[in-house]
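Supplementary Methods S3. Input chains for the assembly prediction are listed below.
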Amino acid sequence: MATMVARRIDWTGIVFAVVLTLLIVFPLIVVGTWAFTNVWRYPSVIPQEFGLRFWNQTLARADVWSSISTSLILATTVTGLSALICLPAAYAFARLEFPGRNILFFSFLAGHAFPKFGLLVAIAGIFLQLNLIGTFWGVVLIQLVGTLLFMIWIPVAAFQAVDRRMEEAARDVGASPFRVFWSITLPQAGPTIAAAILLSFVGTFYETEGAWLIGAPQVRTLPVLMISFINNQPVIQYGAVLSVILWVPSFIALMFARRVVNSGSFARGFGG
Amino acid sequence: MTTETAGALAPAPQSSRRPIGLLLVAVPVLLVLWLIVWPIIAAVIQTVWISTPGGREFSLETYRFFFSDGYSLSNLSITLWTTGVCAILLLLVCLPIALYLRFSDSKVAAYVQGLAIFPMFVPSIILSFAFIRVLGPNGTVDLLLNAMSLSKIRSPYLTPWGPVIGLVWDNIPLTVLILLSGLGAVSNQSIEAARDVGAGRFAVLWHIILPRITNSILVAISFAVLGIFSAFTLPYVLGPAAPEMMGPFMQRTFRELLDPTTAITQAVITFGFCIVFGLFYVRSVAKNRAA
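Predicted structure tokens for the full assembly:
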């Protein structure tokens, strides 16, 4: 179809590009503009005064700093625990034979057969009996469950892609199993595993629903603070500045993950 | 998966290898059992096995209440409406984008693909804020209309259309990726052959392309339905206070009305409405992964 058109000027593409730019990039530019605005009163199309005044004011707020540190500690704890329990499991799934290997491997899909927030409410019912509502570890647990699938399936693929002949060659010349793992297996699987860890950190950092249902108001992460800014904060710039700060991890992920996301295997992981 | 390479980790005699593998996967598997499988079973038990003055007994009272309560039913119907409208809009928006990306190799196509995937890197809470600044009262659209001396829009903020716009925006990337991955299976030869015998664009789309990507379309819809039916953040921030979608409704029942049994009943009802999509989605992912 479009192959015919593409030889000439790609009008279809230009229409898509313009419409998508308006719908996807433009709203974010508006937020970015608000963050660097001192005065913008209706009905001026552009702000009356640009400036960094609200950066100082936002960064002077105690609730902003406490939620930044809560979010970072939470995301680090969850990602660390997830790596600790999932990477050995991924290695076992990729390399060891044990009873029930297949069914256990696919058991991580269980959570994806249900609407997510309904599942969170069901988990919250369990947490209520365990007094985990409103606690740091309650939020850690609920976010940890959300990382399991990614942190096992992606590293399994990475371990399976390692060239076995190199490992065998190293063992033939007398390398210990640990040495083989450290010098041969890990360097080859490392980049993909690092991408999985980055994805799970960023995903946890932005996780809003579990943190809001289980943690709020005692455990206040950045997205949770952002919800209360949207609902109750009349000063628009606070939310805009927070949005820009909040977007930084995503920007880093964007830099690293573009290749992974554009490859077909990523879409296949979602069943495409 | 030969046992020889398994020895790279555990150079133990063959008989002792089995427990090691199970031991390594035990913690994540137990977490799935404790925090996914058990809550679902417990949710069903807790809502049909209710404590009464005379001890616990089987009763469908909480479900009877839900399906006879006008407010609960209007929340359910706004959820069904939002999910349906979003699914249709997503197909109408994403199918043309995916078709264009599949059959174009121009430089513009790379830019379009980048844009279509970009929302994946915008957390929905930032999207909500951007939505309010652009489409909310006195937002950027109002500013521009006012500058052109036109009247303001009727803002979709806090109406049922607010969550619809936000959810469609949020779901564009994965829908496009899933459809694009399905379109990869449509060969150029089959299309050229059809064109050689005189098929028009629409005929090619209808008879050649669509039948081959039916499965991908169903997967994309299932994924979107599972995400949208119990969406929380976007409906909570952008939607009307009443009727509310199931996500905010469950949250409010649980945390503000402090009525976990009713909230869990609502959760089980969302499971029921999504079970077909969920099973189909999981089956497709598993099939893909096993292949």
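Chain A has a mean pLDDT of 87. Chain A is about 75% helix and 0% strand.
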